[in-house]
Amino acid sequence: LRTSGYNVVALPVFTPTADYAFHTASLVKEVLPHSKVVLGGIHVTSLPELSMEQCPNCDFIIRHEGEFTFDELLVAIADGNREWSEIPGLVWRRPDGSVIVNAQRPFIGQLDNLPTGFYADLDLQRYVPHATQYVRLPNYPVMTQRGCPYQCSYCEASTVLGKKTRFFSPARIIEELKVLKYEKGARGFYFQDSTFTIKRAWTMELMELLAREDLGLLWCCNTRADRVDPELLDAMYQAGCRQIALGIESGNQESLDLVRKGTTVEKQTQGVQWVRKAGLRYALSYILCLPGETEEMVQNTLNYAKSLGGHIAMFYLPVPYPGSQLYQTCKEMGGLRRDVNWSDFISIDFDDPVYVNPNFGIEGMRHWYKHAYKNLGLS
């Protein structure tokens, strides 16, 4: 920081990283007291006022999509313009310390208007993907869409990026994949969208282009088990898809309804069977000990997971992120810990979960989490 003397330092903030981001902001201000610290991401979008309060070293927050808001902010800082109220999507402080949340900026309608080369300035060799995200390396993530119409209570995707799904055109995506292959040396990629196949006609058009281009790239994606069919899966395989990650969540219809999954156990079972028949590897994820669940219901989910036979099975305990509907549900039904730090909201360490289902207690929660991995788990 001292060597480069940055005028602006921007940090992404997720709920589990908020404590660390806020600490980093204090280090930046200690070393570069005249720099502007800008925060963005899911956590500060959902909790702008609280974030400004907890991070006094933060000068600005950019909510929701950041491209145009951040650009306008940088221009204003460079020009010495202090009319922060004129920048939609910005959160800032008045001289008296009061926090102002500007009007939300409209979501970007035409994603193709954004410049090409998602990762042009990054050394991608430094980034190692998770086992569910690649077939062969080097492998890099690609986002093809923004927004989500689903209302799953454990997720804030629609809160941050809107309920209407917006897409890059298939031709534009092919252009990005060529950059990754020919300029970054990619041998594979990962469609990181939460529901890659949400729009069937768009997905089929992209698969046709991918197959025609024959880039020799093998890839993975995420989607829902109720958004696939045999014809679509065959087209995906022909275009290089070799692995799919599916969020199953539960083998209990009551729990699927509670988290607003918007599907049925039967539909998910059918989707997984189609994926298996298509010859694809599949990673399935589940949430155990959801509000209202009993030991019998958790065992039912484990039996269901075994019957689906995923190549990879991943288990989680509920993580009720602030701003999500699951947070409100857990609060109403009891079990939310009061003495938590933001870093406790992490979904890879459940020794001290932020939510404890009263039907299990903390030891019961730990038991079922470990029991699931001992009997199924990451293979």
Topology of helices and strands:
Elements: E1 8-12, H1 18-31, E2 36-40, H2 42-46, H3 48-54, E3 60-62, H4 67-79, E4 90-93, E5 99-101, E6 139-142, E7 145-146, H5 157-161, E8 166-167, H6 170-184, E9 188-191, H7 200-213, E10 218-223, H8 230-238, E11 241-249, H9 253-258, H10 265-277, E12 281-287, H11 295-308, E13 312-316, H12 325-333, H13 361-375
Parallel strand pairs: 1-2, 2-3, 6-9, 9-10, 10-11, 11-12, 12-13
Antiparallel strand pairs: 3-4, 4-5, 7-8
Descriptive report:
With 379 residues, this protein is of the alpha/beta class. The chain is built from 13 helices and 13 strands. The chain has a six-stranded parallel β-sheet. Strands 1-2-3-4-5 form a five-stranded mixed β-sheet, sandwiched between helices. Strand 4 and strand 5 form a beta hairpin. 39% of the residues are buried.
